[in-house]
Amino acid sequence: MSLESLHSLGKGIHFIDMSKHSAGLLLYRFHAGMLEVFLIHPGGPFWERKDLGAWSIPKGELDEGEEAFEAARREFEEETSFRPSGIFHKLTPVQQRGGKIVHAWAIEGDCDPRAIRSNTFAMEWPPRSGRQQEFPEVDRAGWFAVDLAKEKINAGQRGLLDQLELVLQEEGKKA
Predict the structure, then answer these.
(1) Range of the domain at 61
(2) What is the pTM of this model?
(3) pLDDT given for residue 6 in this prediction
(4) How many structural domains compose the chain?
């Protein structure tokens, strides 16, 4: 019996396509009294010349059976080589234009974006060349004031920045 059949029998079983879910961390700091967020820029030739709307929080897909929070921490470390610790604030998931749901946690911390070391991926490049090349998943990272970050970040993730500002306001921190 197919999974769809089980679901249609009303067994109360819900199946989630984990390839449509990713998890990440929204690292933030206060620098010179201003709120800044840490964003990454995807590597590879497709993203090379893209800027506005191309940046992201460090995130990635969940492995089968993996909890979203653990995936968020793993992905942050894989994409940056940093492992933040402290108080994590669960944010409400957001949906990107392609349908992917992004689960995220905000955490205050600091790191040097020039020191990131990212994992890599392989793809055929140039197209139809038959040659595989390796590219870093992340080619650069940076700290951005929230207003600029809202321009640079993937539009589907902007809500995470709004949520961060609300969390900080509720805690009495200047956002």
Answers:
(1) 24-170
(2) 0.86
(3) 34
(4) 1
